[in-house]
TrEMBL record, chain A:
Species assigned in the record: Pseudooceanicola marinus
GO biological process: L-amino acid transport
Family under the similarity heading: Belongs to the ABC transporter superfamily.
The protein's name: High-affinity branched-chain amino acid transport ATP-binding protein LivF
Keyword Transmembrane included in the entry's annotation: no
SMART domains, per the entry: AAA (SM00382)
Keyword Ribosomal protein: no
Domain spans labelled ABC transporter: 7-240
Keywords per UniProt: Amino-acid transport, ATP-binding, Nucleotide-binding, Transport
Pfam families per UniProt: ABC_tran (PF00005)
Automatic annotation (TrEMBL), chain B:
Major subcellular location class: membrane
Keywords annotated in UniProt: Amino-acid transport, Cell membrane, Membrane, Transmembrane, Transmembrane helix, Transport
Organism this protein belongs to: Pseudooceanicola marinus
Name of the featured protein: High-affinity branched-chain amino acid transport system permease protein LivH
Cellular component terms (Gene Ontology): plasma membrane
Cited Pfam families: BPD_transp_2
Length: 244, 286
């Protein structure tokens, strides 16, 4: 990969109030690339995404997007600039229909729906079940269907960078495959992806490069195909006291 | 016939309550912000209207054109400078902040306007009436009811079909997720509270035309607005309108039974609804 990354972090420190959860994270994402971020519970993966996305305070120079220092910019402005997020646990708007959830994103997207890569029509073709359920309240959908809405909502922001936080969590394997199958389509549309994932083999398959986090630090990075399972195990659990 | 008259008068009274309740439906029902100062802000706007009457050459009903923009500005400032700092998953901080504001406003109003009851002078419309069969109906209450109806329909449509309405419902459902979807929650909340208090501005002029106001009257209006929203169902705009009607009719019927029972009847019906259908009349079924 050459050229300036579309999104990068530079010695990013972050956390909640007095509690520091991230220590000097350097990461870069290039255009059209999928990187995955793996690590155990509490490693700081979600905190990292939130820090990048302006949901937790960080210094401006710690996050650069499209050549500009954007650290600490509020999330709703990040969306206008072209970053969107599929949050952990989906976080859909309860009490609103499937289509209304989508329209909130369209209302605030980087580009109008007819100028962007993603339209409701295209997403209904990708996820036909959503067309059927478009007028139903979001709480009537199954977990997998809700995840499809969450992804659709993020894509309708017409992002150049998509942050996905644990999109496979709590879903049946068949549904997970269905959802991961559309990732190539997203990158083909020109969107780069940061994938936070607990399932290591899934993360390796779906990404070009991989970062492993442990206790708020990056412990391993490299091309997803080149990294051996043993290296990952060591980086994931910490040195030699890995699982027996 | 006496009872038919009571029901008609109750519906007309309900129109006034609906104007108090609409802003509450938006703030409490949708945004889940408990604004204890709701009634006091309305009284403040009424007193400003009374003071401006005669000074401005716009007539009494015409005061609406002046009071509503003032109300919108107060609402925007209230949300921007006070409520946006305390709003969150926990409803207690906003409750405490507005409770303090309520006490401060009441004392400020006592200082400026004293405890006298005041009202806008009758300008004809307030005392005109017409006759349907054997029943006399006041013109002003009918205007109030029509305004309330139109406002309810308008607000409901705004919530359902506009970008603002969707953004507000999204922010109310999950503020952080709304921000992740590009909604600026603070700005949208400031707009919503500006609308809520703006409607209160209209209610304030009508309330001062219809009856008297004094600095300590706010808490009664607050209770009526709360009751109407809860009877109707949290989050439902038409529910608040319907709740106001129920409350108005209950009070009017109580008044016919005994002149001292009107307000009590309203509270009893409220308790009855809470006991039998706590989610409110118009709440969506789970």
């Amino acid at each position: 990969m050459t050229g300036t990354p579309i999104l990068s972090t530079h010695a990013l420190n972050g956390g909640y109030g007095d509690f520091q959860a991230l220590f000097g994270i350097d990461m870069e994402l290039h255009e059209g690339e999928v990187i995955s971020l793996i690590g155990a519970n509490g490693a700081g993966k979600s905190t990292f995404l939130k820090s990048v996305f302006g949901l937790l305070p960080v210094a401006p120079e710690m996050v650069r997007y499209d050549g500009e220092a954007v650290g600490g910019t509020p999330a709703h402005r990040m969306v206008r600039r072209g970053i969107a997020m599929v949050p952990e646990g989906r976080r859909l708007f309860v009490g609103m229909t499937v289509e209304e959830n989508m329209r909130v994103a369209i209302d605030n997207a980087r580009l109008p729906e007819d100028e962007g890569q993603w339209t409701r029509e295209r997403l209904f073709e990708l996820f036909p079940i959503l067309r059927e359920k478009r007028r139903q309240p979001i709480e009537d959908l199954s977990g997998g269907q809700q995840q499809m809405v969450a992804i659709s909502r993020a894509l309708l922001c017409q992002p150049r960078v998509l942050l996905c936080d644990e999109i496979s969590l709590g879903l049946a394997p068949k549904v997970i495959r269905e959802i991961y199958a559309i990732l190539p389509e997203i990158t083909a549309a020109g969107t780069s992806i940061v994938l936070v994932e607990q399932d290591v083999s899934l993360a390796r398959e779906a990404s070009n490069r991989l970062y492993c986090m442990l206790e708020g630090r990056i412990t391993l990075t490299g091309a997803s195909n080149d990294i051996s399972r043993d290296d990952i195990a060591a980086a994931y659990f910490g040195a030699s006291d890995a699982v027996a | 016939m006496q009872w038919l008259d009571a029901i008609i008068q109750g519906v007309l009274l309900g129109g006034m309550y609906a104007q108090y309740a609409l802003g509450m439906a938006l703030m409490f029902g949708v945004m889940r912000i408990v604004n204890i100062a709701h009634g006091d802000v309305m009284i403040l706007l009424s007193l400003i209207a009374v003071s401006l009457a005669g000074v401005l050459p716009v007539g009494n009903i015409g005061l609406i054109v002046v009071i509503v923009p003032i109300a919108v500005a107060i609402g925007w400032a209230l949300q921007t400078f006070i409520l946006n700092r305390v709003v969150g998953a926990d409803p207690l901080p906003s409750l405490i902040a507005t409770f303090g504001l309520s006490i401060a406003l009441q004392n400020l109003m006592l200082e400026v306007w004293s405890a006298d009851t005041r009202s806008l002078p009758n300008s004809g419309i307030a005392s005109e009436s017409f006759q349907i069969g054997p029943i006399y109906v006041g013109l002003l209450p009918v205007i109030v009811l029509i305004c309330a109806f139109v406002l309810t329909g308008g607000l409901d449509a705004v919530m359902r079909y506009t970008r603002f309405g969707r953004g507000l419902r999204a922010a109310a459902a999950d503020t952080e997720a709304a921000a992740m979807t590009g909604v600026d929650p603070k700005r949208i909340y400031a707009t919503a509270t500006a609308i809520a208090v703006g409607i209160l501005g209209l209610a304030a002029v009508f309330a001062a035309l219809r009856a008297t106001v004094s600095p300590s009257d706010g808490s009664a209006q607050l209770i009526y607005a709360f009751e109407a929203v809860i009877i109707g169902g949290m989050g439902s705009i038409w529910g608040a309108f319907l709740g106001s009607m129920v409350l108005g009719v209950a009070q009017a019927i109580g008044l016919r039974v005994d002149p001292g029972l009107g307000i009590l009847f309203g509270h009893l019906v409220f308790l009855l609804v809470l006991a039998t259908r706590p989610e409110g009349i118009m709440a969506r079924k789970k």
